[in-house]
Amino acid sequence: MRNYILRRIIQIIPGLIGIIFILFFILELAPGTPVSYMMHPKMTPEQKAELEEKLGLDIPWYKRFINYIKEASKGNLGYSTTHKKPVTKVIGNYAGPTLLLALVSLTISIFIGIPAGIISAVKHHSIIDNILTVMSFIGISIPSFFFGLLLLKAFAVDIQLFPLFGLKDPLLMSDNIFDKIKDITWHLVLPSIVLGLNSTASFMRYTRSSMLEVIKQDYIRTARAKGLKDKTIIYRHAFRNGMIPLITLLGYWIPLLLSGAIVTESIFALPGLGKISVEAAMSRNYPLILGINSMLAILTLIGALVADILYAVADPRIRYD
């Protein structure tokens, strides 16, 4: 197992370099440059050339790619021209709300989607199964921006039960830590529901399909013939053997939640990576775009590694040489 983990970590490096290369190539094909965004209408060609040289855009893109890889290996992801700070500091300042939103959404998805999937599989072809199946299809199909606007209209405008925008109340003057936690939690309710809707439905569908396949196996019928309780059969035997597809989904869903937070944060005006991602795209802030996407790529590769390790934990029959 140790050798396998070391090999996978080494394999992450060329995979990450390949992803950054593709990002560089896509940004090169995109219309506009940081200079076109920053350029004054009365700027002379000499001043434009000077600005391009200052930003390092006067050399071919493949040479810029090589320089970027060299600097990234040292922990330098470039300089954000719009924030006047290094990219690492900008990401560090805005990553907290996004990670918190993704963690809460993932927790909701796991604790609702997986039990609902188990119930749907155990109650196969029943009314409960049909209702949960329809709800899961709705959750997968409905766009997050539309669902977010519906929740805002219903619970923030009409009922005024939850805050409309932001992550904290600007009028909150209390220094009590519990009041601050309560305020942030109240602001995260609607965004977490929106972001976790699709993942909850996906977890439910994967759990249901996996459990339906497992409960038809011979060893489940043998366990029932021995007189074991249904809860023991379902949760100790069937669910453990049906976890492999869920582990795969879980490994890749964390970066998907972070990338999906871009739309959710834009709807609810949360000060996270989604907000600065949109701003970076609009201002052609290439270093910040590369930094955020590189972080998502790293999380995706790490998620795949963690999923492979959890395979062996969930099923001892899986061994890595």
Folded structure, characterized:
This protein has 321 residues and is mostly helical. It folds into 2 domains: 2-86, no CATH class; 97-314, MetI-like fold (Orthogonal Bundle), CATH 1.10.3720. The protein is 76% helix and 1% strand. It is built from 13 helices and 2 strands, in the order ααααββααααααααα. The chain has a two-stranded antiparallel ribbon with strand order 1-2. β1 and β2 (85-86) form a beta hairpin. α7 crosses α11 (244-268) and α11 packs antiparallel against α13. The longest helix has 38 residues, at 177-214. It is globular and about 85 Å long. It starts with a helix and ends in a 7-residue tail after the last helix. The relative contact order is 0.15. The model has no long low-confidence stretch (mean pLDDT 81).
Largest sheet composition: 2 strands, antiparallel
Structural class: mainly alpha
**How many structural units, i.e. domains?**
2
Strand content: under 5%
CATH topology name of the largest domain: MetI-like fold
- Unreliable parts: none
Helical fraction equals over 70%
Please tell me how large the radius of gyration is.
24 Å
Second-tier CATH architecture of the largest domain: Orthogonal Bundle
Q: Number of helical runs?
A: 13
Spatial strand sequence of the major β-sheet: 1-2
Instruction: Output the CATH class name of the largest domain.
Output: Mainly Alpha
Number of distinct beta strands: 2
Distance between the termini: 6 Å
